[in-house]
Amino acid sequence: MDLDLLANWTTQLRKGLLELCVLSALKGRRLYGYDIVKRLGAVGGLVMGEGTVYPILSRFKREGLVETSLEESPEGPARKYYQLTPRGRQMLAKMLAVWAEVRDGIDHVAAEQLP
Amino acid sequence: MTAFTPEAEARLEEYLRQVRAAVARDPEVSPDEIEADLREHVETEFHTAIRPVTLTEMEAVLVRLGPPENWATAAAGRSAKDVVVGDLTALGRWFRTRTRGVLSTLWRGPEDWRLAYLAFGLFCLGVLTAIVGIGVLFLLASYVMGRAATELAKEKGTTLGARRWLVYPGVLVVSVPLFLAVMLWPLAAAAPASEFVESYERVARDTELHERGVRGGFKHPPERVEQARRMMAAIPGPRDWSEPVAGIFAAVGALALWWTVVGVAMWAFPKWPQVVFHPLLDGYDGWHGVKLAAVAGVAFLIWLGFATRFAEAAGLT
Question: Where residue A80 sits, what CATH number does that domain have?
Fold first, then answer.
């Protein structure tokens, strides 16, 4: 029971944070899908399956938060680069603000519990 | 392009099938796009491989990607009511995001999708305005956009994928009638042949009425009457069918001759049929032209034999 609860909570937490991290990874630069996956995969405990990043990218593209461009690569297959749209940049700023607020709130609550 | 062993390739295709099934119920994502991303991911993982990728190596990459069924977690644990309300809300959201996505693509690209949407939009406009005559212009514009989308995909070394449903209506609405017109225009030969026979049939009928003293009969010159008699006798079948039989016979001959010419032309210029009649003849090569010319040529020679015998019997030579 506790394990189920923890697993569900962890999944939801990761899902929201992963979306934030995908947008954050694209802040001020453009990356191709594989590169995004590998960068976020290096963040401990965030990505449980590398493939989970691709549906998020697809949804962000449909929502107009990111846009793509295809470019030839000398190192392998043509790469699809992702970059933030103006709407994506606005959304990232809002999400980071909410995240900072939540994080500060949690820190504050935790600090109050100290003896 | 990375090479895979058959087992590794089969495993990848199975995995991609699972991915499509897992994300199919989520209207906010594109299964095609995710599949393309995953293919690119796998290609990038193995781009330095100097030998075909084995099943074990493929399995390691797929394990890191994770089980696709875990990707669609949003629908899990919801009540039936939540699912219905959620699905209706999702449907509305899907329409909004799709509309926004289409507008965004039309404005900013990518170019291959922009061309596909333009082709389909112009096709719809063409159909809707066909009744006022201007629709033809939109359909032609749709054809041009569709061809441009196809060529762009070729340049990129990709296939149209789901875009074909946007591109092909506009392309086919031009290429199919064009193909039919080029291949079947000799059927028009049936009309003059029928009229030719009909003129002799009228002479024979007038003469018969005249000889029976029936009102409406008409006396034609004897040589003309003799010609009509031989002509009617030379055409097989009931006399009432003489006109359609002559029309069909002439059309068959004209088609056989024309298809011989077309076959030779297709053999001499094998690229042209693919370009002009895309996508109808995409799998075509020059040998199809040779086969067409051979079959049609033989048919024409047989027809010519019958035509010569008919001409002799009818006194036309």
Answer: 1.10.10.10
